[in-house]
From TrEMBL:
Protein name: ABC transporter permease
Gene3D superfamilies: MetI-like
Keyword rRNA-binding annotated: no
Entry keyword annotation includes Transmembrane: yes
Lineage: Bacteria, Pseudomonadati, Pseudomonadota, Alphaproteobacteria, Rhodospirillales
A biological-process GO annotation: transmembrane transport
Length: 235
């Protein structure tokens, strides 16, 4: 086991020197995470809005299901995607297992319920405020959904942020479907788990520092964006 002080010093040296292995892992992590969150938002935002303003049989059950899926165990999602993409599975012919695409699929499945559930709550509150006005204007259901999504765009950044945080921290599902293959599917969380188990703390600490800094930067950026939007709204 390395000395902690030496490990931290080496970790900062790896970051300062833009170590090639460190940068490759970070780059793949960001590509997989942002791709998954974009897919989840493309599905979850309209789905959550439709659940907020729609009135149809089974809506209450669907709302409960989406809320329950927010707590999906990552390893269960990983197992389900593995079974779908394995050579004996229905999508095995696509040969996506142990690729970044498989990791994106797993993360998108995990993040979509989070985005949808949080969007539903935001849009439902906003719909209660503007329902009479939209009805008086003769706005269609889809028009209402589009209008409310646009009006709540800054509030919905919270939903996207929650999904991004879940995806960045994910390890179980991506380990199963990605295999943690060096230079192919090794991302920050899986690399941290592997390097720590090996007792090689420098790379694990370097990746951990980057992961925490990314989380802080994303939160700070979104808070700044929301405050700017609020100032513009009241200007």
């Amino acid at each position: 086991m390395q000395d902690f002080g030496a490990a931290f010093a080496e970790a900062f040296a790896l970051i300062a020197g833009l170590d090639a292995e460190l940068m490759a892992i970070i780059g793949l992590s960001l590509r997989v995470t942002f791709s998954a969150v974009l897919i989840a938002c493309a599905i979850g935002l309209p789905l959550g809005a439709l659940l907020a303003v729609g009135r149809f049989p089974g809506r209450a059950a669907l709302v409960v299901l989406v809320s329950a899926l927010m707590g999906l165990p990552p390893v269960v999602v990983g197992l389900a995607v593995y079974l779908l993409l394995s050579s004996a599975g229905p999508l095995g012919v696509l040969q996506l297992l142990y690729t970044p695409t498989a990791m994106i699929i797993a993360q998108a499945i995990l993040v979509t319920p989070i985005v949808a559930a949080l969007t539903r709550q935001v849009i439902e509150d906003l719909h209660g405020e503007y329902d009479e006005l939209l009805r008086s204007l003769g706005t269609s259901r889809l028009g209402t959904v589009a209008t409310l999504l646009w009006d709540a765009r800054y509030s919905l950044l919270t939903a996207a942020l929650a999904g991004l945080g879940r995806a960045l921290a994910e390890v179980g599902a991506v380990m199963i479907v990605g295999g943690n293959i060096n230079h192919v599917t090794r991302v920050m969380t899986t690399a941290i788990a592997l390097e720590t188990s090996k007792g090689e703390l420098a790379l694990a600490l370097g990746l951990g520092i980057i992961l925490v800094c990314l989380s802080i930067l994303i939160n700070a950026g979104l808070m700044g964006l929301r405050r700017t939007a609020e100032r513009m709204a009241y200007a």
